[in-house]
Every structure is written in structure tokens, then in C-alpha cells.
Amino acid sequence: MKGRSNLLYPSERPVWRRPADASRQSVQFREQKTGFRITSQEQNAHLTPPGGPALSEELNAALVDASPHATLVAIAKTFGRRAVLASSLGLEDVVLIDLVSKLPKDERPRIITLDTGRLPAETYELFDRLEGKYGVAIEVYFPEAVSVEALVRKQGINGFYSSVEARHACCDVRKVHPLSRALQGAEAWITGLRRAQASTRGSVRKVEWDGARLKVNPLADFTLEDTWDYVRKNGVPYNALHDRGFPSIGCAPCTRAIEPGEDIRAGRWWWENPNHRECGIHTARAAAMRVSAKREIEASDPLLEKTTK
Ligand code: SF4
After folding, report:
1. DSSP string for 229-278
2. Which of 236, 247, 271, 301 could form a disulfide with 264 if both were Cys (CB 3.0 to 4.6 A apart)?
């Protein structure tokens, strides 16, 4: 690892505090309402650390040459379960699940996945194999039923083919909003993004600031060969569709097999312009929605005054 950030370890990180008297009243009120004691950790569970963009710069500089394993070790030591591995169970994600399963249990990030309701059967089958092999619980987040019903009434069952806007509307309901819920309380989220994956991903960094929290991409430097190499050497379970011409897998109606020589993401949203073809959850628009969701939560608790020691 090149250099080492002094913000990598929890004891050295700034903390968030709230005004003692007002905060106490708020906590007492909430304790009376719920009948449960609220710990200080729970009070702060949905806050992100101060200095987000600066922290991401510092962590990125420290981890720029770190291996995926070293990156995950550093993030796990710093954030533990306040970090979330957002997994679509793609080839990169199964590598990350394997790596996370090798971390000490009490430091492991949560693992979440989104069930959009349109996934191929092979992805569900992989889900079972991963939980069985690693003994990890993958938390599944679903879209809101009423939102899906309204979407389908408006654009039809496969309306996403009709325009980029319609596709984004579907990804918003089925992926972006559920992800936003899954990331509530997280200070960092971990993804399987690689720079070599697509023209839209050439500038992916190890650690980024997405406006709401840190975004960590341990495989940013990996090639497709590196990824397969890891999977084969470590006997990592992977989606059966990879052996049938699907290098990149998402929802069934938006994924097709590719022809030899085609770009590896050519089978995703193949009817759209490749330069705008990006998974709904990694667009700037989706990041802005997560920022606004986080602000809404913070605004709903007027006592969350942030100071550093
Ligand atoms: S990938 Fe396709 S089916 Fe899945 S959420 Fe996006 S538009 Fe909808």
C-alpha cells in the first residue's frame, strides 16, 4: 500500500456530536415513544463522517496501489458494518463476496443485493450457492410494490425499451430507490466497478465521494482476465449465464448474450447508445437522488447538529 492515511483507523477519525441537553431530550422522547433504549451508536447510525470529499481523497491516495484484499481490509477496519457491499452478483461481485467472507466476522461489511423482480433464474440460483458456500447472509432489497404498479400502469410491462427516459424510470423504481434504502446508515458502499469494464467507467477510482458517502471500488484496476483468474483460482461460484455468452448480467429483459468480438457490456441495454449506457445506480442522477434522500433524513431530525472534536 502506498502511504497510509491517518483516517484509516476509527480511533483517529473525527466524531459527530450533538448538543448535550437538546440531544438528551430528543433521545428521551424517542426512548419513551419506542420503549427501547437508544444507544449513541444508533443515534448516529445514519450520519456520514465529516469532510467526506477530503476523506475520499485521502483514502484514495492511501489505497491507490492497494490490492482488492488490502483495500477491503482497510475499509473493514475503519467502517465495519457501516460499510455495505452492494452486490448484483455479477462476476466482480462474487470476487468481492469471497474476499469479504475472509475478513474477521465482526469487521465484515454488510452484503446487500437488489431484487428488481426481473432477474434471470440463474441469478437466484447463484444467490443460494453463495450463501451456502460462504455462510453469509445477503440482505435482499425489493422495490416498493406501489411504485412498480404505478410504473407498469404508466409505461407497460416492458416500457423500458421505448426510450432512455422510460428505462431510467424503471431503473429508478427497481434499483435506485431500493439501493438508497439499503445504504441508509452506511458511511461507505463497496462496488465491483472496474475501469476496463466500459467506456463510461474509465475514470473510476479506488475511493470516491458520491455526494452522500464514500464509494469504494476495490477492483478498479482489475482487468476481466484478473477477475476470471481470481474466480478460478479460488473456486468462487459464478452465474451459469457467464458460460453461455453473458459476460455482464443484469435484469433478464435488459441483458442478452454477446457475439465473439463484441464489447463485454454490449449485451446490456443493447438498444441504447453505448456512451450513455450505464447501470441506473451509477449515474450522476442516481447519486443526486441518494444525496437528496440522505438530506431528507437528516432534515427530519433537527437535533442532528454536527460538530467535530
Ligand atoms: S435493468 Fe431493465 S428491467 Fe432492470 S430495472 Fe433497469 S430498465 Fe428495469
Report:
1. HHHHHHT----GGGGGT-SS---GGGB----TTS-TTTTBSTTS-GGG--
2. 247
User: Which of 116, 154, 279 maximizes ligand 1 atoms within 8 Å of its Cβ, making it the mutation to test the pocket?
Assistant: 116
pLDDT digits (tens, 9 = 90+) for 126-174: 999 999 999 999 999 999 999 999 999 999 999 999 999 999 999 999 9
Residue 256 phi, psi dihedral angles, 5° rounding: -130, 165
- List 304's β-bridge partners, or say none: none
Taken in order of first residue, the domains within the chain and their CATH numbers are: 51-299 (3.40.50.620)
Q: Tell me whether residue 256 is exposed, middle or buried, using C-beta atoms within 10 angstroms of its C-beta: 0 to 12, 13 to 18, 19 or more.
A: middle
Q: Say if ligand 1 is within 6 A of residue 109 CB.
A: no
Determine the straight-line distance between the first and last CA of the chain, rounded to whole angstroms. 29
pLDDT over threshold 70, residue 7: no
